[in-house]
Amino acid sequence: MRLHFWIYLSLLAFSLNAQTTTNYPNGKNILFIVSNAHFYGETKMNTANHFAEIVFPYDKLVKAGYHVDFVSPEGGAIPIGYIQTSDPLIKEYLYKKEFMTLLKNTKKPNEIHPADYQAVYYGGGGAAMFGVPENEAIQKIAMIVYEEQQGIVAAVCHGSAGLVNLKTKDGKYLVDGKKVNGFPDLFENMDADYYKTFPFSIEKMLAKRGGDFQYSKEGWDGFALADGRLITGQDPSAAGLVAEKMMEQLNRQSNAVSVINQE
């Protein structure tokens, strides 16, 4: 039986006194974009960032030698939820003080230097629908990484809401003409109160922006897409795979640069 519960980091019972330091190894920096939203829209219905969609890619990336920072529209503590404590990795990270401190002390957009990063990753959960998609400072960070750094923009599940307003320097939407994925309408409960608070349908908006929205009708089967430097996943089961595809692309780019330098 799966157990889900909400944790608001500002109210965590245990002490999180560890001091964090920023270390930027060359070519090994990823920025996770998360939300501060505690509620669905203007309601009092609790929402949160999806803990697994943070933990699974984070674990793969840091074990591969990447440094990960977190940014949110307001900075500071973020709400986390959808926590399945029967999963050993989820339980492990839930009690990792250093990791939880990162989530309690996310950076503000004005504290981020986009040139330090090779990729950005939008995590999901209901909170991802609010605060992040319309935040122009975060949009700018993502597009500097994508265009000036020739880096990756990645998202999973409702995190793909963060892609809908991203534009290139020539005014085109980032997703225009690209294969893209996110949480599809098929699996949304459109009659539910939570859904009625959403500012848009991820599937419909990405298609409206010119994206070729593709998804698995099975769901929860690790469906993910990579269209060049745009990488997206459908639901929590794809979060780890998105990270793997990010690393594959970064490795290809690194190898290409090495070949050029040797010539």
CATH architecture: 3-Layer(aba) Sandwich
Number of strands: 11
From the spread of the alpha carbons, the general shape counts as globular
Would you give the CATH topology?
Rossmann fold
Highest-level CATH class: Alpha Beta
Low-confidence segments, given as residue ranges, are 1-6, 8-21
> Helix share of residues?
25-40%
**Number of H- or I-type helical stretches:** 7
Order of strands across the main sheet? 4-2-6-7-11-10
Largest sheet: 6 strands, mixed
Q: How large is the radius of gyration?
A: 17 Å
What is the overall pLDDT average?
91
Strand proportion:
5-15%
Oligomeric state of the chains present here: single chain
The overall number of domains is: 1
Write the layout of secondary structure elements.
Layout: E1 7-8, E2 29-33, E3 49-50, H1 51-63, E4 67-71, E5 79-81, H2 88-94, H3 97-104, E6 119-122, H4 136-148, E7 152-156, E8 179-180, H5 193-196, H6 202-208, E9 212-213, E10 224-227, E11 230-233, H7 239-262
Parallel strand pairs: 2-4, 2-6, 3-5, 6-7, 7-11, 8-9
Antiparallel strand pairs: 1-5, 10-11
Helix pairs in contact: 1-7
